[in-house]
Amino acid sequence: LEEEDFIIRKIKDPLTRDYGFNLLVKAYKQRVYWMVRKMVIDHDDSNDITQDIFIKVYQNLERFREESKLFTWIYRIAVNESISFLRIKRRKFMIPIHDVERELIGKIDSGKGISGTEIEIKLQKAILTLPEKQRLVFNMKYFEDLSYEQMADITGTSVGALKASYHHAVKKIEEILTHD
Amino acid sequence: MNIPKLSKNNIFNVPEHYFDGLETAIQNKVQANRTEKKPVFYTLAPKIALAVCSLVILIVLIWPAYEKPDAAELLAQVSDEQLNNYLAEAEPIGAEDILFDTDLSDADFLVPDPITTDTTF
């Protein structure tokens, strides 16, 4: 938290804004990348999206109000970019949801940039069958251990709705893994 | 199967030193983005120039239609004979005409009232 305050102070001062931004990239690049990677699976796509996210962050630094935490604000941009990437992909190729899922599962099956036990890979594939927002909620809670309050700030959804969403996601994944 | 008990290992890999390169790539993109962003004047300059040129052309084309010839030039176009005929036929200027053209509100014009302005008792 102290680090976040320090970065915000640097960003707020126009003379140290660039320095503050470099600190911000250093502090959040990995979290942002992994969040994106779990959503879009492909490394090259994740790389492009992560770069775009930080460009957007830079362009909007002046608009950052301390009403939300810096991490929450960056994460919100990351979530929007990832979801809009998947939507554009879907629209661009005129393919239904099922085919995007199949494409992402295919990337896991290809084994490129993937290494895990059989059950870990099965889990990832099961996660990919969830609707994208449910998938996002599951990833944030299960892998990143974010609190429901943090997730509510990021997604602009109520804590109750997030709890229900996570519960449904867990049930569905359990069902898939049990039947597999 | 109990999900919370499953491994939370990250199965995805990235190329070696990827995150060091990512930082540089972001900084380069930001730099490129900043140099691309020209000041507002430069982006608007062609539009401003076009507007000014159009205005100049419009003025050049329309101005002659509104340009009034000089009074001396107009008088020079009238022959002495025409001028003499006009003066002979024109009615002389009377006192009424002078009064009509005079601004009565002009303070200098007013003759002071001897009763109201007399201060000697």
Account of the protein in words:
The complex is a heterodimer of chains A (180) and B (121). Chain A is mostly helical and 180 residues long. Chain A has 9 helices and no strands. Chain A starts with a helix and ends with a helix. The model of chain A has no long low-confidence stretch (mean pLDDT 90). Chain B has 121 residues and is mainly α. Helices cover 60% and strands 0% of the residues of chain B. Chain B is built from 6 helices and no strands. The termini of chain B are far apart. The model of chain B has no long low-confidence stretch (mean pLDDT 74). Classes of the chains: A mainly alpha (180), B mainly alpha (121). Chain A binds chain B through residues 21-22, 25-26, 29-30, 33-34, 37-38, 41, 43, 47, 50-51, 54-55, 58-59, 113-117, 119-121, 123-124, 142-143, 170, 173-174, 177-178, and chain B through 1-4, 6-15, 18-19, 22-23, 25-27, 29-30, 33.
List keywords for this structure.
heterodimer, A: 180 residues, mainly alpha, globular, B: 121 residues, 60% helix, 0% strand, rod-shaped
